[in-house]
Amino acid sequence: MPIEYDAVIVGSGPNGLAAAITLARAGCSVLVCEANATIGGGTRSAELTLPGFVHDVCSAVHPLAAGSPFFKTLSLERFGLTWIQPEIPLGHPLDDGSVACLHQDIDVTAEQLRSDSRAYRRLMQPLAHNWEKLANEFLQPMLHLPRHPLALARFGIPAMCPAIALSKFLFKHEPARALFGGIAAHSFLPLEAAASSAFALVLGLAGHTVGWPMPRGGSQQIANALVGHLGELGGKIEINQQVENLNDLPKSRTILLDVSVWEFLRIAGGRLPSAYRRRLESFRHGPGIFKIDYALSEPVPWKAEACRLAGTIHLGGGIDQIAVAERDVARGKIPERPFTLAAQQSLFDETRAPRGQHTLWAYCHVPLNCKIDMTDRTESQIEKLAPGFRDCILARHKMSAGDLEESNRNLAGGDINGGAANLMQLLARPILSPTPYRTPLRGVYLCSASTPPGGGVHGMCGYHAASAAMRDIFGNT
């Protein structure tokens, strides 16, 4: 068969689109095949509850997108992407009525932590000063020759620590500990796990340097802007193209797969060598989520005024309570008080809901393949800190693990990160290699969140995979 394209990309999530743009910029002819009727993967938006209420189907708040070294080269604002910065990026209310907040300004954040202010500054200020260097270091495979070894070492030493141990060593009081622990819980790891602090540091630093912004009009706008850029470069996209086998694809010089390792095992069939197949089969899932989108008659009536100014809210109590919940999830147990994340897009973006009404995006951590309806437990977390919340609900849209997987096969079992992000799977994601995007199949590469640097909307998995393909297949450096 004649070659139809230089490259075919399977999946139009941020990584697939980043791979397509990288190759198209190098002059390659590119086709993107998307299984769903809409492009975007985890960056999609839809009217999930009532007409006029725009909800983010998966991702909602995007510090890593705003801080992505690759996205910064694309001028996505030319294609309609506008970032909104909430007055307060993150609020973490506590049971005693206080609230710890992450502000973009490190000094403002530190001052409200009072007696822990010096410790917070001492931890974060030197790292924030080196954000540009660090972002390029940790948003690639861990097996690489560092370009900024001193900056990376200063980050890496605390990053390797368990979050609960580091927070209690550094901070004396609950607000600082809870703030750090809540951000660390984005790892989906028990807070006792090695490297759980890395997530608190990366996302905290992103908050101080680029904020925790949200796209005006919904996360779909990120995908739309990437597609606009790809179209300008001559790339093509086909929707409703479910790939069941690699042989289904048009003939090309290279294939890049924005799919999880488990999807790759399925569509590669028996073509993979047994040793590589066994390695992928041993790759572990992370926990899942249970997600609810709300149409509200009014803003969430938080008791703490600061929460009414925050784009993102962490709900889970103090660090010990968060640690118990995350430990339960890791052991396959339903937490009584699940760690819950909420985003209040409509407070800052009038396009998300009819005038005077609002949206709320929320999910809690649950064991993989959880079939339990977590609505009551999630709403109890919110109601405790926002009495009267249930009275504001006009409509709900729930997504269990099964619903998430049905909407996107890469979210099997509700795992939104393409596999657990424990230390071993950060080192070997999915294999131990300086170029883990390569597969044993000539010209076939993985570029999903199952490759470094892992989950999050940053496009770096796609960029690195496409760069490897250009070196191997097209001879570009």
Question: What is the count of DSSP helices, taking H or I runs of 4+ residues?
Answer: 17
Q: Provide the domain count.
A: 2
Q: How far apart are the first and last residues' alpha carbons, in Å?
A: 29 Å
Helix content: 25-40%
Unreliable sequence segments = none
Strand fraction equals: 15-25%
Write up this protein.
By secondary structure, the chain is α/β, with parallel strands linked by helices. It folds into 2 domains: 5-43 and 60-81 and 215-284 and 418-474, FAD/NAD(P)-binding domain (3-Layer(bba) Sandwich); 83-212 and 286-407, Polyamine Oxidase, Chain A, domain 2. It is built from 17 helices and 16 strands. It has helices at 14-25, 63-66, 106-112, 117-129, 131-138, 149-159, 163-170, 174-184, 196-209, 220-232, 261-268, 274-281, 319-330, 375-385, 401-407, 423-427, 460-474, and strands at residues 5-10, 30-33, 45-46, 55-56, 83-84, 88-93, 99-102, 214-215, 236-238, 252-257, 288-296, 310-315, 340-343, 358-366, 393-399, 444-446. Strands 7-6-12-13-14-11-15 form a 7-stranded mixed β-sheet, sandwiched between helices. A 5-stranded parallel β-sheet has the order 9-2-1-10-16, covered by helices on one side. The protein has a two-stranded antiparallel sheet with strand order 3-4. The longest helix is centred in the last third of the chain and has 15 residues, at 460-474. The protein is globular. The model has no long low-confidence stretch (mean pLDDT 96).
